[in-house]
UniProtKB/TrEMBL annotation:
Keywords, alphabetical: DNA-binding, Methyltransferase, Restriction system, S-adenosyl-L-methionine, Transferase
Pfam families: N6_N4_Mtase (PF01555)
Record field: catalytic activity: a 2'-deoxycytidine in DNA + S-adenosyl-L-methionine = an N(4)-methyl-2'-deoxycytidine in DNA + S-adenosyl-L-homocysteine + H(+)
Keyword Transport found: no
Protein family (similarity comment): Belongs to the N(4)/N(6)-methyltransferase family. N(4) subfamily.
Organism of this sequence: Marine Group I thaumarchaeote
Protein name listed in UniProt: Type II methyltransferase
Gene Ontology MF: a single term: site-specific DNA-methyltransferase (cytosine-N4-specific) activity
Amino acid sequence: MQISKDQFLTLKEAAKFVGKSVHNVSYLITYGKINKYNSAGKVVKKGIKGLVFVSKNELEQYTKSWQKQLAQRRKSLNIKDQTLAFSQLSERERTKHIHRLHPYMGKFIPQLVEYYLKKNFTKKDIILDPFMGSGTTLAVSSELGLRSVGIEISPFNCMISNAKLQDYDIVKVSKEIEEIYNQTKKFSDAWTDSTSIGDSSISKSKYLNKWFAKRTLAELAFYKKKISDYQHQDILKIILTRAARSSRLVHHYDIATPTKPVTKPYKCRKHFTATPGSKKIHRMCHPLDRAIGKIKLYTFDTTKRIETFSKLRKSSDYLVLQGDSRFINLTKEVGARWKNVSINGIFTSPPYLGQIDYHGQHQYAYELLSIPTEVENEIGRKKLGKGKQAKEEYQKGISAVFANVSKSLHKDAKIFIVANDKANLYEKIIKDAGMKQISFKERPVEARAQGDKTPYSEKIFECALEN
Ligand SMILES: C[S@@+](CC[C@H](N)C(=O)[O-])C[C@H]1O[C@@H](n2cnc3c(N)ncnc32)[C@H](O)[C@@H]1O
C-alpha cells in the first residue's frame, strides 16, 4: 500500500510545513511527541529502511498544543508587545555560527542585538559593550559593518570573544585545527594505562582529577602542549576547553551546573526513547573516559562556524579590553586604536544580581589553561546573594561602570541596557550614573540561563547622557 500525501509527510516536508528544521522534527519523534511511519503508513518503533514519514494530523495537533502552552506562558508574563520575544526562532538560529563557539550561561540572543543596532546606528559608528561577556554585541556589530569595543572582567570570556571575532585566513586556520586534532588522535590511539599526563599543573589539579577520567586528562594535556606550535592559539584553546567541558564526568542532564562527578553508568533523564502514549525508556549512559570524540566533534563544528561568520561579516574593526569597567581608562584605550573618535552608543546586558557565576561556569577552562581569575571584581557575584547589602553594592558598581564609560561617549550617544530588573534597581542606577531614561520596553524571555526554564521578562532601557 502506498501512503497518502495528504496525510503523511517526509521529514523534509514536515519541517517546511511547521517552519522548523528537520532536526526539530526528528527531535519530536525521538522524544515521543509524534509517531514515526514507514512508506506503508504503519507506525514503526525501531529504525526504518528507506524514507521516514510523519502524520500531518499528529504534527498539527502537537503544534497546536505547543502554541497554546506558549500563549499561556506569555499571558502569565502579561506583556502585550511580542515584537521582541523572538519565540519563532529555533535554538539553531539563536546560536547561529560563532554564537555557539563555546557555551556561556547568560548571553543575549543575537537577534535582539541586531534589532536595536540596525534601528539606531549607521556604518562606522562605534558601539560599546562594557559587560561584553562572550562578545555577542561585538559579533553582531561586525556583521552589520559597525566598529565595536567590549570590556570584560573575566579573562576566559575575553578569550572566547577574541576567538570569535578574529579575522581568520580560513585555509590556514582550518589546517591548524585539523592538524592538531590528527596529532591528538594518534596520541589517543597509542594511549595505555601507563601513559603519563606530562603536565604537572594538570596532573596535580584537585579539580581536574575530580571531574575528568585519567585518559581524558592525558588527551587534553597533549592537545594543550601542542597549541604553542601554532599561530591561532585562542581558537585552539576554545576547541580544547569546549571538548573538556563536554568530557567531564557529568550526567548528560546536568551538564550546565553539575554538583558531583559521575563514575558509573546511569539511567539518563535526557536520553530516552518514547512513542506517544507509551512509557519512556531511559537509555543507560556512561561517563566519558576520553576526550578525543568531543575534540573531533568540535574540530569540525568550529571550522564550519568561523567560516560561515567570515563570509557574513562586514567589519573586522573591533577592540576587546580585559579589565574592570568601573576603572578602565576607556578614552586612552579607544584613542590608541582610533584617532579623534567618540563612542556613538552602548548596547549591553549587565550581570544578573547574585544569579550567575560568570567565572565559575568556566572553571574547567581556568584550571586546564592555568588562567588567573578576577572573580573578586565581578559585580553582582552569585556568592554574595541578593540581599539588601548585595543590592546596594550592585547599584553602586553598575552605576560606577556607566559613569566611567560615559566620559568616552559622544554627547548624543544612545544607550541601551538590557536587564532583568525584578528588584527595580535600575531607576537609581541610571540616575546615579548621570543618565536619563528616554523609554523602556519589556520583552518575554522563554529561558535565558541554561537549566532555568522559567519564563521571565527583561527590561530594555533606552537612555541618554543627562548633560
Ligand atoms: C550578562 S553578562 C553579559 C553577556 C553578554 N551580553 C553576552 O551576550 O555574552 C555580564 C558580564 O559582565 C561581566 N562583568 C561583571 N563585572 C564586571 C566588571 N566589573 N567589569 C567588566 N565586566 C564585568 C561578567 O563577567 C559577565 O560576563
